[in-house]
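User: hey, got a sec? need 8-oxo-dGTP diphosphatase folded
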Amino acid sequence: MTRRAVVGAAIVDDLRRPTRLLAAQRAEPSSLAGGWELPGGKVEPGEGPIDALHREVQEELDVRVRLGDQVPGPLTAAGAAWPLGASYAMQVWWAEIIDGTPEFGPEHQAIRWLTPDELYDVAWLTDDLPIVQRLEAAFRCTG
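Assistant: Yep! Here you go:
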């Protein structure tokens, strides 16, 4: 079974020396509502993952971002992606906002900037936790 491609942005305040990560709280579907995640979404047919990530961040947060390095995940056959259940594989990139102020739309009920010490103050979706742990390790290396 092939996993459907999704993308996520680890949006930080500064790509070189990050001190905060932007988290988004899901509003829907009901099975995910209230859980926290990295902003992003599905890659549409005929769309590349980078284009999809820029589109999703613009749609969800009304911002434009500069992408940094990819955050490599364990699914090497899916572009170094992270498993989201059995059906999805998410590629994640570090990103910083270059235009706009993040505002959440209908997909989310809140957004929050988290310092490295606050990363676990929100209830991350289960499948996002390994990604957050990888991000935390990178935060600790830059601090």
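Quick note: The domain at 4-141 is CATH 3.90.79.10 (Nucleoside Triphosphate Pyrophosphohydrolase). Let me know if you need anything else on 8-oxo-dGTP diphosphatase.
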